[in-house]
Amino acid sequence: MEASREFVYQKFCEYYRDPATIIPSPIIPNQREFAYLLFKERFMVRHKRFEGIRNLRSVLSETVPSDVYHSCAYYENPDFDMDKKGWLGADLVFDIDADHIPTTCDKIHDEFTCVKCGFSGKGLLLEVCPACEATKFEAKTWPCEICIKSARDETAKLIDMLTNDFGFSLDELHVFFSGHRGYHVHVEDEAVRSLDAMARKEIVDYVTGLGIVILDKDARRKIKKGTAKKFNLNNFGWNKRLKNGMETFLQTATKEDLKSIDLRNNSVLENRDTIIKRCINAGLWDSVDGVKDQTWLKLAEHVRELQAANIDTVVTTDIHRLIRMNGTLHGKTGLKKVEFPAKNLQDFDPFIGAVAFKKGNAKVLVSDAPEFKLSGETLGPYKNQTVELPVAAAVMLICKGRAKVAN
Ligand SMILES: [Zn+2]
Ligand SMILES: [Zn+2]
Question: Are strands 377-379 and 382-390 parallel, antiparallel or unpaired?
């Protein structure tokens, strides 16, 4: 193995072999499938069953994988082939990853190279190579603070919906930093275990605000006789989110903000206060001249986008999904997946709480790294220079392909 890779491997060894390392057990471990990616072979070992966390730990300290996963699902026979496992249920899981969220940093710290033709660029990963139309890229990403904050904001919206609209208590939500640049939310309550893929898709649709109907078509017919309102929002769930969101948006909206959602109607800004008071708060949606259904629909659609939680929908609907295991290291950063109380979402600093390597320094040759914080220390930016860094920072830069061990 190449020296830098060997260095990271050695650090992972120390982590998994240290008796002080805490790797919490998922609930009912003996009904879950475990899987791990081998460091040297880059091969995924799957369909493993362990009686308990101790058995798994001894395997981890022997094999020292780069990444460890377990199924969200519970099986009669987790170590059998997929079709013979005997699915018993699955946790409800949500994955929020900055990879899929537009951010103000616009991922300028990310680079990609087309595997086929070598075309490369900076910024958000493309789906298709503009040069050769291939769809496989090698990506160089970075867990930047802006990216993680954007993922955190999405997670906050999700938690708000799960508690206020779905009725879970904060204690029932297991919230994790993913170890890279996102968050996971697991619901392990028995009430969700038997949900099939369709039911989970319904939950995804709710969380992302897909298919909200706010213009009552039946009422439109009745309104001709003057009996009902076409546009109406009540005071719970998405209706309430839209109402509150419209109020917040209108309070500070500029002419440009309105133009950006295709509203060129001057009466909205001229009557801002009246609209908020009479229409949104009192529910008299038709009471301001020139502000009708089409205006409300455009506002509602914009607010829907703002209020929706940007989750990776595939993860939630997949009832056999493997998810990174709590307490294990992320092969792309050397940070660990770590759980924290849902109420601490805003205060939990992953660049402190997820740091696994707390001792020692290492000399590395850094090709390119932006300024970053780790364990409360501000480091970088670096460009083609040899520096002595805390081990956690050295591991992260090597994992990210931005540094090599210096001789
Ligand atoms: Zn290409
Ligand atoms: Zn960023």
Answer: unpaired
Does one domain contain both 238 and 196? no
Rounded Cα–Cα distance for residues 172 and 166 (Å): 12
Establish if 186 belongs to a structural domain: yes
Distance 106 CA to ligand 1 centre (A): 22
> How many angstroms is it from 131 CA to the middle of ligand 1?
5
Q: Residue 386 is part of which domain span?
A: 360-407
Residues 160 and 47 in one domain: yes
What's the chain's average pLDDT? Answer: 93
259 lies in the same domain as 330: no
Q: How far apart are CA 311 and CA 96, in angstroms?
A: 5
Q: Is residue 25 part of a domain?
A: yes
- Rounded to whole angstroms, how far apart are CA atoms 371 and 248? 34
> Does the residue 103 lie in any domain?
no
* Residues 188, 270 within the same domain: no
Q: Give the span between the Cα atoms of 366 and 380, in whole angstroms.
A: 10
Query: What's the pLDDT tens digit per position in 325-378?
Result: 999 999 999 999 999 999 999 999 999 999 999 999 999 999 999 999 999 999
Residues 319 and 194 reside in one and the same domain: yes
Tally of CB atoms within 10 A around 198: 8
Cα–Cα distance, 288 to 280 (Å, whole number):
11
The residues pairing with 113 across neighbouring beta strands, listed in sequence order, are 120, 138
**Separation of alpha carbons 192 and 91, rounded Å:** 7
- Structural domain total, the chain: 4
User: Quick one: 152 and 35 in the same domain?
Assistant: yes
Tokens (6 digits) for 281: 């708060």
Residue 229 has pLDDT above 90, yes or no: no
Residue 111 alpha carbon to ligand 1 centre in Å:
14
- Which ligand number lies closest to the CA of residue 118? 1
